[in-house]
Amino acid sequence: MDILGIDHVEFYVGDARQAAFFLCTAFGFHIAGHGGPETELPRQRSLLLANGDSRVLLTSALGSAHPADGYVSRHGDGVGVIAFATGDATGRASDGLRNPAFVLKHARGAAKRARVALESLAATMEARGFGYLQPGVQLELGKLAVHERRHADARTHLERTVELLSHEPDAAYSREAAALLESV
Q1: Are residues 145 and 79 in the same domain?
Q2: Residue 60's domain is classified under what CATH number?
Q3: Which long-range contacts (CB under 8 A, 24 or more apart) does 45-53 make?
Q4: Edge-to-edge strand order for the sheet containing 30-35?
Q5: Residue finishing a domain among 33, 53, 87
Q6: The domain spanning residue 181 has which CATH number?
Q7: Domain that holds residue 163
Q8: Is residue 75 situated within a structural domain?
Q9: Left if phi > 0, otherwise alpha if psi is -120 to 50, otherwise beta: which for 89?
Q10: Mean pLDDT of 30-37
Q11: Is 136 in contact with 171 (CB distance < 8 Å)?
């Protein structure tokens, strides 16, 4: 996979608006985009900041179902995701399959192509020694199915996530899957 650089860095923070105010005031960033309940992201508040070619995404959880909640509770503000820019992210799915963590973190891109990559990954990850990533992959497949309004598939993947994490019912993925199951 040809990595051209870093597209953006996502920070999990306690208060996205406060962090944005600081970065805009101190370092000259400006708000280039936002997401939250008003944009169908009910569990988070995200602000995209830009300064020249640099982009920073600040995300704070609006409830315990978002992974940022657990991260900030345990570690304080910090890097949640580093997103790489690629020349052809969708055409090189086989490269991504060699690195399941990369696919997992970037699965929310183009939903249809991401679903194909994730389904391929889910089918082979146990045999390749990446079974520990299965709950996250199943959760992402569930989210994509919810987004695409494929509710039966969403239920299957979300129930699988909860089942895989039955020994850790308080895990962030388990809580997020359970919350999504209530909505489908």
Answers
A1: no
A2: 3.10.180.10
A3: 45/16, 45/17, 46/10, 46/16, 47/16, 47/17, 47/19, 47/20, 48/8, 49/20, 49/23, 49/24, 51/27
A4: 30-35, 44-51, 54-61, 3-12, 78-86
A5: 87
A6: 1.25.40
A7: 111-184
A8: yes
A9: alpha
A10: 88
A11: no
Q: Which residues of 44-71 are buried (b: 16+ CB within 10 A; e: fewer)?
A: bbbbbbeeeeebbbbbbbbeebbbbbbb
> Residue 81 has which token pair?
């995701």
The answer to whether the CB of 88 falls within 8 A of the CB of 82 is: no
Q: For the chain, how many structural domains are there in total?
A: 2
Residue type for position 138: Q
User: pLDDT digits over 88-115, tens only?
Assistant: 555 555 555 555 555 555 544 444 555 6
Structure token pair of residue 76: 């304080």
Nearest to 163 by CA among 146, 148, 145, 181: 181
